[in-house]
Each structure stands twice: as C-alpha cells, then as structure tokens.
Amino acid sequence: MPTRKQRRRKAKTFRHEFDFVTTDEEGNEVVVDAAELRVSKEKDKPKGKKPQSKGRSSRATREVAPPSWERALKRGGLMGGFLLIVMVLFLKSPLLLGGIYGLAMIPMTYWIDRFAYRNYLRKQEKS
Question: What Rg do the C-alpha atoms of the chain give, in angstroms?
Fold first, then answer.
C-alpha cells in the first residue's frame, strides 16, 4: 500500500495536462500525436548495431590492492571494536565473548581481502 506521500506524488503527475509539441517554420506550436512521435523515434534508431548487453559493462575494473595484515589490523580492529561495544552495551554479553569476536574480525578481513585480490587476478588473466 503506497504511503500518503507516494499517493500525492502520483496524483500530482495526473493533475497537469500536457502534450508533445513542436514548433513549425513560423514559430507556431504544433501538437504531435504519440503515434507520430513513436514512428520518428524508430526512424532515428541506427540499424545494424546491436544494443549493448546489460550483463557485462565495458568499463574498467577497479584495481584491487594485494592483501596485507597491516590493513586487516586497521579494518578488523575498527570493526571488532565496534562489535565489542555493541555486544557489551546492547546485547549484554560478557566482555570476553565480545573480545573474542572482535579479535576474530582481523583475520576475517584479511581473508576477505585475499579472496577479492585472487578474483581480481583471475579476471585480469581472462582479459
């Protein structure tokens, strides 16, 4: 069910009548039928070219840095510290359990970086 805001926005689009118009040589506005507009779009479409597939884009992939324990310590330490605070304050779990989970974040971030780097190398070999 749409919210009140969504219903108002949709109603706003139907409030105003509008037509597709063009100007002729004399500067007068001429209303164009939707069927005529559709035919002109089909004429303008280039023939012989295939539309670009939506699966793979042709843009360059971002370079992934090799994994390092220093970066894993920074990232994992921040995430682990945040997790420790959340577990102790909100979940009322013991400090030791939160510390263990917090320390586990460090090798986990290293393994995630390693996984991303290996996938990046595989994609580079294919192309």
Answer: 29
Give the tens place of pLDDT for each residue, 57-80: 666 778 889 999 999 999 988 998
CB 87 within 8 Å of CB 93: yes
CA–CA separation, 4 and 122 (whole Å): 49
What are the DSSP calls for 84-119, one per residue?
HHHHHHTS---HHHHHHHHHHHHHHHHHHHHHHHHH
**For range 52-56, the mean pLDDT:** 58
In this structure, what token pair is assigned to residue 117? Answer: 């780097």
Q: Tokens 């577990």 sit at which residue?
A: 87
Q: Are 64 and 43 in contact (CB under 8 A)?
A: no
Return all residues near 102 (Cβ < 8 A) that are at least 6 apart: 80, 81, 83, 84
- pTM of structure: 0.51
